[in-house]
Each structure stands twice: as structure tokens, then as C-alpha cells.
Amino acid sequence: MGKTKERTRLKDSFGRLKDESFYFNDITQFFNRKDKSNAFHVISEEVCSDLDFEELFMFLDRTNSKVGQQYLYHKLRTIPQGDHALSYKERLINIFTEDEEFRIETQLELSKLNKRGAYSLADLFQSEFVQAPKWFSIFPMLSFIGVTSLLFSFAQPNLFIIFLATFSINSIIHYWNKKTVYNYIGAIPHFFSLCLVAKRLYKKDVFKQLNPKLEGAIQEMNQIRRKMVFFRLESSMQGEYGIILWWLIELLKIGFLLEPIFLFSVLRRLEHQRKECEEVFSFVGEIDCLLSVASLRSGLSSYSFPSLNASRVSAEQVYHPLIPNCVTNSIDLVDKSILLTGSNMSGKTSFIRTIGVSVLTGLTINTCFAKSMIFPRLRLHSAIRISDDLMNNKSYYFEEVLRIKEILDASHDSSNLFLLDEIFKGTNTIERIATGKAVLSKLASPNNFVFVATHDIELTELLANDYEQYHFSEAVSENTIDFDYKLKQGKLKNRNAIRILQVNDYPSDLIQEAYAIVEELDVHYGVSR
């Protein structure tokens, strides 16, 4: 693609969703291997499943490089202790938004790292390297014998026999080493690009504050890059003449054992420069993430920055970014949790996910999908989407028990957000209500916020002192069911499940029997309506 067309594409795509494939096995590799011991909280696989994280990531991701994409994934799953450079990063986002020419020039640089092979860059500082064999010390000696015997064979032809013998030995070693070379050859051209992109970006004064000491790391990487030129030649040869040149270079590499000698020299250097390599990777990734956030915000109808408050969770006109034409809702809780009631499809679980998504993006990319949001720095835990573990012979209820136990253990620390949907629905009504009440009372401790959805109206009575009561409802007419998806204060008073059966032409005697049983159960459990 010509540079003019590429600039036009970048200009037109700003603020829009990506139109490309997402390779999550590659995208997640940097996050999976990254040391996260200093993080405030790491988002678990269970929370990712409950919040539809992959779909959310595909919506949020507007990065221009595979480095930025991997870094954004890590950023979204790692809530930091704090970000002292937040105001500076917001200034960069504003520059990207307002200065189109600067943004496009930055995108053009970053796009040099957008080939799929660039995912392997993190291997160069996160993976264990192949160690040189114990007999590696003979490689330089064989190389020296090959060089000298070939040179002096012009004066002493008998020495050519020594060269041929050495060449045969070197051929075995060379092709034995090919498997090791192939482990790294894919990353080498992209390592060149990473070094050059980082060097060019760091020349721009506006980026230097991201890492004022990065210049030394860039210089170290450039020294390694120069040693890798030898391998880059092989990866760049194409066409008929390229094949001929490749064969000539291959003969040189075999004769003088250049490939294993250079490779293990580079790996030794990289082994001692892992920190510098990751710093360069993170510098480029952070710039791409900030540019991605600028693009994301430009495509939103509304967003806000979070305000941190230790005792309050408040959201004004919050919406779920993955739901088209999503109905907005508002909530304001001070040292309280929320119990949501309502029928299926009325919006309970979607609202819980909506809160979870905006808390997550607010704490990671400083962007909430709401007119305004206030909350503490929270750890996210959830039990929304639970399934049987048939491979390990675990029932649905047992999986629930394990998940809720993890949540109870987490509640001992303060500053948690618990997102729960119909807990213990894998067991009978009486025990579900009893255990549900006990667990929810235990979770509703100071500095923890619980958002729980339930069909069990009985819990509204039992938890009246511990939880704020809200509900979603629908209007059932003679032949239709209408949902407004609006959050309403107070507990649900209308029961429409049986009415919905009636609308769908269930037998009248069945409907009458169901209503009669409901009245009996209400008396038995002392439920007020």
C-alpha cells in the first residue's frame, strides 16, 4: 500500500473498530509471562469470562502494532497500584486527538510492527533461551581451521582436503543448529523494527517523559541489532537472484560455522539485557496504547474519567459499550451494596456487567462508559457464568461452591467489587435462600461493594438492612412483553413469570394452579408483596 493511501486509511479509521482477525493465543503471551507481583489486582480468567473480556477487548483495541496490542491486553487485565504519570498520559492522548498530522506520523511508525511475527518479540526477553552445548568451545576452532585451510590451500593444495573434512563436520553442526535458529529467526526482523521504531519515537521530546532513562536501553538494543544483521539477510532474500545469494551465504555459514557462533553470541547478550529489551518493548507499547485510547474515545457518544472515592460507588448514565443503543442507568451507593431483583431478560445481569466493565476500564485506561463515575480502587471478583467441569467430574453446584469460596476468601481484604448472579442456583430453594443470605451478609462488609442479582424475592426481606434494593421490571399486556431496562429503586413487587406463561397460551388450569401455589408459599415463607 502506498504511503498516501496508508495515511488516508489511518485518517479514516481513527475512532472506528478494527477490521481484522484477533489471535488471542498470541495476544495473551506477554500478559501470561509478565511479572505481575507489583499490581494492585490481576483480572482472573473467571472475571474475564463473566465480563465477555475477549469481545470487550476487540471493541477497545485500536492499536497499530502487535506490540501495542499485547501491551494493551496486559494493561486491561492488570489494575495498577496507581499511576503518577496519569496527567502526562492524558496530555499525550489529547495531542493524538487534536494533532492529526502528529498522530498519523506516529501510527506510520507503529504500523511497522503490525505483522503477525511481531508477537514473538516478547520471547526475546520473557522466554528461556536455548543454551549453547557444552562442546561449544570447539566451534571457533573449527571455524578457524576452515578459514585458514581454505586460504592456504591456494599455496598448498593438500590443505584443501583438510578444508573439505572440516566442511563436512561443520555441515553436521550447522544443520543440527538449524532448529535452534528457527526458534528465533521469526523475531529477528521484528527486533530490528522495534529498535528503529523506539529510536525514532524517542527523538520526539513529547514521548521522553514516558521513560527518561530509555536512551541507554535503546543504545544497548542497537548494539545487539548490529549483531543480528547476519540473520536478517537470510529472512529478507527473495526472488531468483535472492535464492542464488542465499546459497552462497549458506555455504559460507557452513564452512566457517558462522550461524551457531553468531546466534549463541546474540543470545548471551540478550540474556544480560532482558530488562533493557522489555523497557524498549513497553515504551513502544505504551505509546500505542495511548493512541488506541484516543481513537476509542473519539468513537464514543459519551465517556468520563473516574473519580476515586473510598466509600462510594456512583454512576450517572452508565451504559454497556457492547450493547447497541444501550439504555443508560444511574446508581449512587455510599458504604452500601445492591440487591437486584427482576425477571429474566429484564436487564439485571447486563447492568451488573455494565458496572464491572466501566470499573475495569476506568482503573486501567482511565475511561468509563458513563456521564460520570465515582468508585474506589477496587479488586474485581465475579460469579456470573458458571458451568459444569465434566472433565474433572465436578457438578454445577460444586463449581459454584468453589467459586463462592474464592470470593469469600478475597473479601478479607478491603476494596473489592463483587459481581454475583443467582448464587447457589444449583441447589434447592430453601437451602439456596439460606446459604445465599449467609454469604451475602458476610460479603457486605465495609469497603466492599456487592452487586448481586436474584430471582429469590425472599432475599429482599432477609437482606433489607444490609443491601440497597433495586429492581428491573417489564410490562406484560395481553399479547406482548415490553422491557424498558430502567433501574428502579425498591424491591420487585410484580411477579410476571406466570403471566408470561399465560401470554404464551399455557393451559388455563395450569396457570390457576401455579397462582394458587404461589399464594400458599408466600404465606409459608412470610413474604410481603
From TrEMBL:
GO terms for cellular component: cytosol. This is MutS-like protein. The chain crosses the membrane at residues 135-154, 160-177, 184-202, 244-267. It comes from the Bacteria. InterPro entries: DNA_mismatch_repair_MutS_C, MutS, P-loop_NTPase. One of its GO terms (biological process) is mismatch repair. It comes from Sediminitomix flava. The lineage of its organism: Bacteria, Pseudomonadati, Bacteroidota, Cytophagia, Cytophagales. Keywords: ATP-binding, DNA-binding, Membrane, Nucleotide-binding, Transmembrane, Transmembrane helix. Residues 335-519 form the DNA mismatch repair proteins mutS family domain. GO terms for molecular function: ATP binding; ATP-dependent DNA damage sensor activity; mismatched DNA binding.
